[in-house]
Amino acid sequence: MSRTTPPRPVDIASVFPELAPSARQAVRLHPRAGRPTVHDSSVGGPLLWPADETWPTCAKEHHNGNPPVSLDDIRRRRALLDAAWLRPREPREHLLDPGERAYFAKLQAGHPAHTEPNALLPVAQLHLRDVPGLAGPEGADLLQVLWCPLDHHNGLPAARLVRRNAASVGELLTDPPEPADVEHYGGYVPAPCVLHPEAVTEYPAPHELPEELADRLYAWGEEQEEDPEEGLGGAYYQYELSVAPGWKVGGWAPWGLCDPKPMHCDACNARYEPLFTIDSGESNGGSGSWTPLKDLEEPSGPTGLRTPADAPMVKIGRGCSMQIYVCPTSFDHPHLEVMQ
Known about the structure:
Layout: H1 12-15, E1 24-28, E2 32-33, E3 42-43, E4 57-58, H2 71-86, H3 98-108, E5 118-119, E6 121-127, E7 142-148, E8 158-164, E9 193-194, E10 198-202, H4 211-224, H5 236-242, E11 248-250, E12 273-279, E13 321-326, E14 336-339
Antiparallel strand pairs: 1-10, 1-11, 2-9, 3-6, 3-9, 4-5, 6-7, 7-8, 11-12, 12-13, 13-14
């Protein structure tokens, strides 16, 4: 199934030629519900992991505002809600029956946090063959992203990047450890998804442009709207023409939660570059023209709990994104995680 981003409403580089040098390729991953195998590129799927390689864990301090829950709790909660959304019900009838509400409340209660290291959870597996422009060390053709599914000091899960050669994995680990604790609401538990990678062109968010150019883009955006109060107005460039929403590799940063800040590698002081964006959805409320053509079609039936634009069911903060930055000089240097 192809998921093609419509052409941009305006070729912004022809209107503002000074933007042309800042064009970057991003690869939108378009994760959708599926059953990926260890050999596929995926979100929330099983990893191609050697049987003789230790599964990573997290022993860092966690910052939990609510008691953690188990992975099984999240799976049962989602299954319960999905079945409830799919069954017919009368107008104003409660989504859950009394027994289900009691069971749901029990699941919500959570459990005391464990003290032993927490096993990491697979987030994404990306084969270089599937993602144009994705690079790796010599001989490595696979990027695996895992994280500890609990809040850490920066309000984000702590990610681990693993690069390897897929052909040299050998005997596979078939029953990897699972984390004992995950975030209370399950926002850090990616549901299994297959990917539909698509290369698009992005331009910097207004926050990263010279102030004079950003002001002109804002004024131009207001001119494009017949009624600015009903549309995006001056934010037209920001939402529709600069940075694509959703899970992606490369591209530009979706600044907005905070202003751009200097971000340099602790090991060599090189300026970090965006590698991977993990988003809370494929639409941010103002970016309708980025919606894939396939998703513009009316669903043939009930969609249940998972919508196409939110297939991974990941939530970062209050609907934000987590961007992983890497050092351009060495794959061995530490990466950086930022909420945007």
